Amino acid sequence: MTDVDDDLHVRSGDELTAAEVYDIWRIRDVVFAVEQQCDEPDVDGIDLLPTCHHLWFADADGPTSYLRTFTAESGVRKVGRVATRQDQRGRGLSSRLLRAVLERWGDAEVRLGAQAYLHDWYAGFGFERCGENFWEAGIEHVPMRRLPRA
User: Fold this and answer.
1) Residue 4: its pLDDT value, please?
2) One GO molecular-function annotation for this sequence (predicted)?
3) Are strands 110-115 and 77-84 parallel, antiparallel or unpaired?
4) What is the CATH number of the domain that holds 104?
5) Which pLDDT does position 149 carry in this prediction?
6) Any residues with CB less than 8 A from the CB of 144 and at least 6 apart, and which?
């Protein structure tokens, strides 16, 4: 399904085309592997599941900003892999993506592991710390959750 909220794209994992998978993995590779030098594999078996949804904005060069959200085995919705191309940063694209997730799935608890320096940014969307910091992919993270909206 593609939304008509400007240029917002929303697809479940089982709806992605091969070209979309390539573009998604390309932006994540550049941001996480090259820029942030993450030391863990990105491909984790979740992306193509029907319970995984990919949200992104794009231009002629591919995705400009991206995130994925999925329902974990515990039944809790998770957000992760938030990535914005370097030439598109500072335009509020990630904020728009996160708001789109909360508009669609905010009736339930949403969890994420925020890179520690982004704690306050996520707190601005109603997320709060829910545990001790941890290391993932060589980067310090903070577990956060947003309780269901009233």
Assistant:
1) 37
2) acyltransferase activity, transferring groups other than amino-acyl groups
3) parallel
4) 3.40.630.30
5) 77
6) 111, 112, 113, 114, 119, 122, 123, 127, 128, 129, 130
Is 16 within the bounds of a domain? yes
Q: Is 106 helix (H, G, I), strand (E, B) or coil?
A: coil
Quote the DSSP letter at residue 148: P
Has residue 4 been placed in a domain? no
Domain count, the chain: 1
How far apart (Å, rounded) are the C-alpha atoms in residues 111 and 143? 7
Matching residue, tokens 């001790």: 132
Per-position pLDDT tens, the chain of length 150: 334 356 899 999 999 999 999 999 999 999 998 999 888 888 999 999 999 999 999 999 999 999 999 999 999 999 999 999 999 999 999 999 999 999 999 999 999 999 999 999 999 999 999 999 999 988 999 999 999 976
Domain ranges, residue 84 = 9-146
